[in-house]
Amino acid sequence: MLSSTLKQQKSKSKIRPPRKSGSNTLDPNESWKLLEVAIHDIQNKNASKWSFEQLYRLAYNLVLSKNAQYLYNHVHDEIVKYLEENVRTQLESLIIKKEEQQMMNTSNLQENDVLPDHAISKSDAAEILNLFNKIWDDHLISVWLISQVVMYMDRTFTKENRLPLVYDVGLISFQKYIVMHNLEASNVTIGAKLIEIFLNYFSLNRNGEMIDKFLIKSTITIFESLVGVDGETYYSRYFEPALLLSSHRYYEQKINELLGHQSGSLYINKAVQIINDEESRFQIYLPNQTAEKLRDLMYKDLVVANIENILNLQNDGLKKWIENNDFEIMEKVYRLVEGVDSNKMILKKCLRSIVIHNGDDLIAQTKLQQAKDFDASDDKKKKATKKSGKEANTQYAVNYIKNFTNCKSKYDQIIEKAFNNDIEIYREVESAFITFLNENNRIQEYLSLYIDDCIKKSLKNKSSDEVERVFNDSILIFKFIKDKDIFEKYYKNHLAKRLLNQKSISTELELQMISKLKTEAGSTFTAKFEGMFKDVKISQDITQQFRNEASKTTLASDLARMNDGRKFDVDFSILTANFWPMPVNKAMEEVTYVPALDIVKATFEKFYNNTYNGRNLTWAPNMCTIDLRMNFPGKTYLVNMPTLAAFIVLTCFNDEETEDGSKSLTFEEIHQITKIPNSDLIRHLQSIAVAPKTRILKKTPISRDINPTDRFSLNLDFKSLQTKFKILAVSLSSASSRMQAGINQISESDKFDATFSSSRLETDEERSFTLTAVQRSREYEVDAAIVRVMKARQSAKYQVLVAEVVRLIGDVGKRFRPQPSLVKRRVEDLVDKEYLRRDENDRELFWYVA
Question: pLDDT digits over 484-495, tens only?
Answer without folding.
Answer: 999 999 999 999
